[in-house]
Specification:
217 residues, alpha/beta, Rossmann fold, eight-stranded mixed β-sheet, four-stranded mixed β-sheet, 7 helices, disordered N terminus
Length: 217
């Protein structure tokens, strides 16, 4: 009695943050918590299939990511969730691994959820591409609510995605070339940049996604 009353969604809404051995999990979980939700860092395939909202962050190499997803028996769960059009947000490697194949490390087969390739940034550029850069919005989508076109987000990457279907490209960024920095397909949103490291507009993007996924509950 007399204790602090938490918002109702903190008690019933599970925001699953996939743990497959990659770093950066805590900063994503902290961002979700700052928005008033209850993040659950998990490597449980059932959680990935059934949670109302799933975020898959990631840093590192594609081959290591695929190895760890298999190790934790998460490949089928991730594929099933996206095929069933359940809310899924991929970040950095969490975007790249959705494609068919990555050039990284001499070549690596990925999840083949989004047909396309992961390519190395062209020669002559400083890699990794690290720091703030603009994202040009290519579609009118609720994920951008309250976020101005050309907003700067924080990047750390040496490879970029080239989806076969250009209609999936929701955001583009210039760094030597113009590359896909954001992809949207149904309830799937994936970014090359790190919203959790991108200040108020990064938090706003997560908030837009979660509210849309929950039907603005």
């Amino acid at each position: 009695m007399g204790g602090r009353v938490l918002p109702a969604h903190r008690l019933i809404i599970m925001i699953a943050v996939i743990d497959y051995g990659a770093g950066n999990l805590r900063s994503v979980a902290n961002a979700v918590a700052r928005l008033g939700y209850e993040p659950v860092v998990t490597s449980n395939a059932r959680d990935v299939r059934e949670a109302p909202v799933v975020i898959m962050p990631g840093v590192g190499a594609a081959a290591d990511t695929m190895f760890n997803l298999r190790k934790h028996r998460l490949v089928t769960a991730v594929r099933q969730r996206i095929v069933e059009n359940k809310p899924f947000f991929g970040v950095c490697m969490g975007l790249q691994v959705l494609c068919s194949r990555s050039e990284e490390g001499g070549g690596c087969e990925c999840l083949s959820i989004i047909p396309g390739q992961v390519r190395k940034l062209p020669p002559g550029l400083k890699v990794p591409h690290m720091g703030w850069n603009q994202v040009r919005q290519k579609v009118n989508h609720p994920i951008f609510n309250g976020i101005p076109d050309g907003t700067n987000f924080y990047f750390v990457h040496s490879y970029y995605v080239a989806p076969d279907d250009k209609n999936l490209v929701a955001g583009e960024t210039e760094y030597g070339i113009t590359f896909c920095s954001m992809l949207v397909q149904g309830n799937l949103v994936a970014t090359q940049f790190h919203p959790e490291k991108s200040g108020e507009f990064g938090l706003k993007m997560y908030d837009n996604f979660i509210k849309s996924a929950l039907g603005n509950k």
